[in-house]
Amino acid sequence: MAFWTYILRCSDGSYYTGHTDDLEKRISQHHSGTFPDCYTVSRRPLELVWANEYQDRDGAFLAERQLKGWSRAKKEALIAGDWERVRKLASRARVLRDDAEPSTSSVSASPQDEREQNKSAHAEEGLSSSRSERGEGPSRSTAPRSPVIVLVRPQLGENIGKAARAMLNFGLTELRLVAPRDGWPNPSAGPAAAGADVVLERASVHDSLAEAVGDCTHVYATTVRKRGVTKPVLTPEAAARAIHAEPGKAAIVFGPERSGLETDEVALARAIVTVPINPAFASLNLAQAVILCAYEWSKAQ
User: Fold this and answer.
1) Please, what is the Cα angle at 130 between 173 and 60, to 5 degrees?
2) Is the pLDDT of residue 69 over 70?
3) How far is the CA of 132 from the CAs of 55, 72, 85, 137, 139, in angstroms?
4) Residue 130 CB partners (closer than 8 Å, separation 6+)
5) Would the pTM of this model clear 0.85, i.e. be above it?
6) Are 137 and 52 in contact (CB under 8 A)?
7) Are the CB atoms for 270 and 218 separated by under 8 Å?
């Protein structure tokens, strides 16, 4: 089965990058405006200006992420097939990053600047000279360590879809569902996911939390309630740093919408993740909780 990463030029001159397993169908959806809540809906007509085939979805998804981090000039060089300019722009970005490295006598860059440098670094590293000569586009480079998102007994398909959308916004694709109330697959999840189909398609279903995190070395349980268990309590930011620093697969676990995780489920975790919100109104919906954790993970890259 083939997978594609593609770039569209929009009517306002901006570019949209995506990936799919059916290029013809997806481009038709973009042209007709039937790709729900997509950036391109209000920017038609559109032009397909670049596409590249990959053997698996991981390769196509990684290429999409890399391209989204590229500058406009670099994208246009890729579209034109000007690999010499792509290499020059990549070299220039590396020089800028080297110049930005903090020394003992320099002032550190702001967190936002550091994130931009890191995004650029991931994009540049994905383009090897051998593949560039063949015009194959971004390659499968070393990806950051991505946590698994586990939803325990989610009640509504819409909430699963919104959680999937939140995940994909920040590059997370592995979703595990524990005993979803209305079964799986759920027809209400797709529209709510607003295009995050890859997350829903890959979602796996498990009978218990223990089964869902059986291959995970580090498990983080999200909760706003105090528990009768002795666990380290982390903010989403601190948990994200730990996930990036520690070897092995990590999972971030979210409980049912109404009641949250049971105490015995929290006991399976190595740490508790709690968002420091207004104690007088400590209520986040499921997708909000997921997007906060996903954002902090992305920021820590």
Assistant:
1) 20
2) yes
3) 17, 18, 11, 6, 9
4) none
5) no
6) yes
7) yes
